[in-house]
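Task card 7
Instruction: Convert sequence to structure tokens.
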Amino acid sequence: MSPPVPPELEHPLWTLLDGESFCQLTRGGRCVTEGDGNYGNNERCVITAARDMIVHAEADYNTESGWDYLTINGATFSGTAGPADIVLATGDTITWRSDGSVN
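Output:
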């Protein structure tokens, strides 16, 4: 059984603006995923922060360096350099993009 959700996390943290076939909101909008296993080719999605927060990477971050990347407020993360402790304000944007080659 999962522990109870703290009151400050009961509401969605994210809004999915584009790319619902590649990215999904989980845990009541508190998490974003592009699915289980490896990511696919030509994926694109855009999400925004639904409130002010600090982002922590919880999983291994490993993309095809220079070709597949996450962009958070203009900062690009590619290869194994994933985001951690990034401050987001309500409405800030995160974009996920993968290219057309095998990852």
